[in-house]
Amino acid sequence: MRPVTAVRRAVIVVAATALCVGAASPGPSTASSAGVGATNTPAAAAATPAAGGLQVRPAADPDPDGAATSVSAIVDAAAARAAAVTSAPNASAAAPDDSADGTPGASPAAPATDPTVATRTPASTPVPISTPNGRLMSYIVNAKVSNPAQTQRVSAAVSRAGGVVVQAWPQIGVVIAHSRNGSFRADVVSQGGKAIASVGATRSVAVSEGTPTGVASPDGSPSPADVAGSDDATDPSENGSAVPANPADSPKSTNATANPTTNPTTRPTVATPLLGRADPDPDPLETDQWDLSMIKADQAHQVTDGSRRVVVGVLDSGIDADHPDLVANLDVADSVNCSDAGRPDRSATGWQPTTSDHGTHVAGTIAAARNGVGIVGVAPAVRIASVKVVNDAGYIYPEYAVCGFVWAGLRGMDVTNSSYYIDPFQFYCSDQPDQAAAKEAVRRAVAWSTSRGVVHAAAAGNSGYDLANKSSDNTSPDDGTPVRRAINNGCQDIPTELPGVVTVSSLAQVGNTLDSSFSGFSNRGLGKIDVAAPGSAILSTILLDDGYGLKSGTSMATPHVAGVLALMKSRHPGWKPAQLVARLLAQADPKACPSSRDAPCVGTTARNSYFGHGVVDALAAVR
Question: CA of 336: how far to CAs of 106, 351, 459, in Å?
Fold first, then answer.
């Protein structure tokens, strides 16, 4: 999901970069929902996107001029071992690359030194980010070597350059800094020397949330580096603990426009696995969930509803803490707010939604409990943790995402769901220093959490864009004044196009059947899309009256895949991310390109630009 001011980015509009599609409404990132029984017409793919970034991105894929980076490429490279379900090497779990991604030059306009992009593809249009003296700006500074000592060196350089360390992640060699020094980028490189790989501003506007409480103001003396989040910084006993007591009621969004069904009043009991039960009783609205039948989740539930040991991190706008269909499965101990400048906020209510119910809708699709109330999720017995990465204005900045992915790894989560693209750029270009530094930090965070056993699913985006053939973008930066720019295939939608991330496109129901068609708003791309899942008019949980509503978007397709991965992990707890992904793709139901289509569908039935390897299959996942 992602912040989309008024449906930012094609049809996805739910507060915060969410990748869902709904009726556009004025104001930042407010995804509208249609009530049960109402119709929801996704915005046309060509609709003028609003500022903000909630676009779904495709999973990383091999750059035509570079190394293979997509999940599909990783799987293809190790197909034989993966198919045998032996201990396939975890390609995504490799330690982060310590090399620089772009040149941390003294000038923001200095070209990056990515030889692949520079010599084999046309350069992208520069989009300089202005950092005048006195304006509080946020920066990412990447160390050349990812370890505590080098991260401390970078942190010290930040202080000497007139900045303040907001958060340091020694696991990946990334430091988040604030500064009012207009020449901070050049100064920190001068101060840090060979310790620094790259530095870049993370937004085109001033920091709206200010510097978090407890961190010295950039106007005063910088505080020592906060090297937080080491392996010893968390309490392992909280991970995998019993479901905590219900938290206090969370504030309700005033932006919800759905007409929910009657609000259930009974509190659900804790969901339990079904193993051995042949015919689980349906919840009241389960018969309306055509999407579960389309991916065979209803059949999978005859085998299992999932394991309580499995945790899915919902990187989104927060999860309603008292929704009757979610409370039993909500993992409060592992929930966190990352939208306060990218620093983990463990406060009791920080991770709860404020301006958007996008995360609540996503959470319901993944794990609404089987409890005799409302709907049922794809994996109704697994636990869900709220990892809030969307701020009140609906933006998901790089530092928020870095915090979310590293947190998932630190807490030992099994799966993450990312239904958004990272602001302020729809595509981050490796030949632009600011964008390259931000992309590298997020890449490191994803790779490190994967190495800790976390598997990631992300939305392909709702711009009707061919991710395999990029040429232009007129929506970025979406937090300021967008410019029309030329881009190349070294420009990526993140986190979707990062290595090891499963990229999900969207399907629509055909009539009242279980047949499907490609959702017109969905991004596509041969070698970019890994699997497809239902994403148009999906019924799930919303904030208003703890009810239920319909939303559309690749944001809604992705949680189906996250839920299937959670079921698979429940049945095969020893499988690593690469094995899970390989089996997910191998078990998908192949779907051929349609004979008539508005946008070109290329490839074979086994793998094409619309559906990737096919429609995700929940039943196969639990066998």
Answer: 35, 5, 21
pTM: 0.78
- The letter for the amino acid at 29 is S
Q: Give the residue from 115, 110, 174 showing the smallest Cα distance to 145.
A: 174
pLDDT greater at residue 68 or residue 227: 227
Q: How confident is the model at residue 216 (pLDDT cuts 50, 70, 90)?
A: low
> Does residue 358 carry a catalytic annotation?
yes
CA distance 99 to 120: 20
Separation in Å, CA 103 to CA 71, 151, 199: 27, 18, 8
Token pair of 59 as six digits: 């999973």
Residue 474 burial (10 A CB sphere; 0-12, 13-18, 19+): exposed
Q: Does the pLDDT value for residue 485 go beyond 50?
A: yes
Cα 345 to Cα 212: distance, rounded to the nearest angstrom:
9
CA distance 291 to 115: 45
Q: Which residue has the tokens 């009810």?
A: 547
Average confidence (pLDDT) over 317-332: 98
308 pLDDT above the threshold of 90? yes
What is the average pLDDT value for the chain, to the nearest integer?
78
The number of residues in the chain equals: 623
Q: Which of 542, 536, 528 is nearest to 554 (CA)?
A: 536
Other CB atoms within 10 Å distance of the CB of residue 310? 24
How large is the C-alpha radius of gyration of the chain?
22
**How confident is the model over 549-555, as a mean pLDDT?**
98
Q: Which two structure tokens, joined as six digits, stand for 324?
A: 């009757």
- Predicted local distance difference test score (pLDDT) of residue 595: 86
Catalytic residue of the set 555, 560, 609, 613: 555
Spot the catalytic one: 63, 114, 316, 334: 316
User: Does 555 participate in catalysis according to the annotation?
Assistant: yes
- 386 catalytic per annotation: no
Q: How confident is the model at residue 598 (pLDDT cuts 50, 70, 90)?
A: confident
Of residues 358, 361, 560, 613, which has the active-site annotation?
358
Number of Cβ within 10 Å of residue 600's Cβ equals 12
The distance from CA 439 to its chain's CA centroid, rounded to whole angstroms, is 14
By C-alpha distance, which of 518, 478, 268, 243 is closest to 373?
Answer: 268
Give the list of residues 6+ apart from residue 511 with CB closer than 8 angstroms, or none: none
Residue closest to 253 by CA, chosen among 388, 335, 358: 358
pLDDT digits (tens, 9 = 90+) for 251-281: 222 222 232 232 332 333 333 344 444 456 7
